Amino acid sequence: MMMRLLMLSFVLCCPLQASLGGRVRLMLTGAAPISPTVLTFLRAAIGCQLYEGYGQTECTAGCTLTMPGEYNAGHVGAPLPCNSLKLVDVSEMNYLAVNGEGEVCVKGPNVFQGYLKDPEKTAEAIDADGWLHTGDVGKWLPNGTLKIVDRKKHIFKLAQGEYIAPEKIENVYMRSDAVAQVFVHGDSLQACLVAVVVPDPDFLSGWTKRTLGLEGSFQELCGRAEVKAAIFEDMMRLGKEGGLKSFEQVKSIYVHTELFSIENGLLTPTLKAKRNEQRQYFRSQIDNLYSGIKM
Fold first, then answer.
1. How far apart are CA 258 and CA 84, in angstroms?
2. What's the pTM value of the predicted model, to 2 decimals?
3. How many whole angstroms from its chain centre is CA 197?
4. d(C-alpha 173, C-alpha 45), whole Å
5. What Cα–Cα distance (Å) separates residue 89 from each residue in 98, 135, 152, 229?
6. Which of 44, 75, 194, 257 could serve as 147's disulfide partner, Cβ 3.0–4.6 Å?
7. Using an 8 Å Cβ cutoff, are 64 and 77 in contact?
8. pLDDT in tens, 154-212
9. 3-class DSSP state for residue 25?
């Protein structure tokens, strides 16, 4: 059996490794979460050390990193020697430090001194003791590694009082090959969530031809009700697989054809979502989505 697995690995993986030059020894992933399934596959297929890191621009990028020889996916490793990490209570989301859960805070020489000429924003990010509050919610695993489980910043309540962390939901939906970008919206006056979705132009045409028998330009496909329904169905499937609660699943989507970018004012220079600008930009589409939902 082991020999068969080795032969299968050789047959399937060697061409892939050769296509990368055959000399890859190390790879690093960061900036956004990677699916544990994808990470496990890449480690096996490429045959090199593949590390996953976690951090922010404000702490000079990385503050944790997986270890050499680590083959368990689903965490971002242990703290780097240059900094200390602690978790603090996020009581409104029921994450408590006593349970090994809470907002990830970083302290060390790698943490920035502040935002240029913006003391108010700096005070929001760094507390009086010098801890950078990342806005990410983490959980300590038994082996001392950190798992990112939620997002504190940008949380809001729905009309029934449920707390929503939109970035967590967006990260789940981004696992869909059909989705390039997604903006999840909700507020305290609404009972459910909606989303603006930008499909992946490189994936969409082949996918719709295979699954729906539809052809056309990117704009034409995005305007088809069948395509919208197929994207929505895939998002719902991934939401269930990702453990989203029913109130965390969006109830309707608007399919947009232009990627969010720095140029159109929907992303920051570090490629983070400008949520207020996105909300204003898509206000009419969001209102139309809500008007069409029957609860």
1. 41
2. 0.67
3. 14
4. 25
5. 8, 12, 11, 40
6. 75
7. yes
8. 888 898 888 898 999 999 999 999 999 999 999 888 999 999 999 999 999 999 999 99
9. coil
Q: How many CB atoms lie within 10 A of CB 267?
A: 18
Which residues have C-beta within 8 Å of that of residue 114, sequence separation ≥ 6? 122, 125, 126
Helices (H) and strands (E) in the chain, counts: 9, 13
CB 104 within 8 A of CB 132: no
Two structure tokens written together for 188 = 């305290």
Amino acid at site 225: A
Residue type, 232: F
For 211, other C-beta atoms within 10 Å of its C-beta total 13
Give burial (CB, 10 Å; 0-12/13-18/19+) of 11: exposed
3 state DSSP class of 209: helix
Tens of pLDDT along 66-107?
998 888 888 999 999 999 999 999 887 778 999 999 999 999
- Among candidate residues 175, 187, 178, 166, the one with its CA nearest the CA of residue 273: 166
Helices marked H in the chain: 2-19, 36-46, 119-125, 166-173, 201-212, 218-222, 225-241, 275-281, 283-291
Question: DSSP assignment of 43-95, as one string?
Answer: HHHH-SEEEEEEEEGGGTEEEEEPPTT----SS--EEPTT-EEEEE-BGGGTB
Cα(180)–Cα(173) distance, integer angstroms? 10
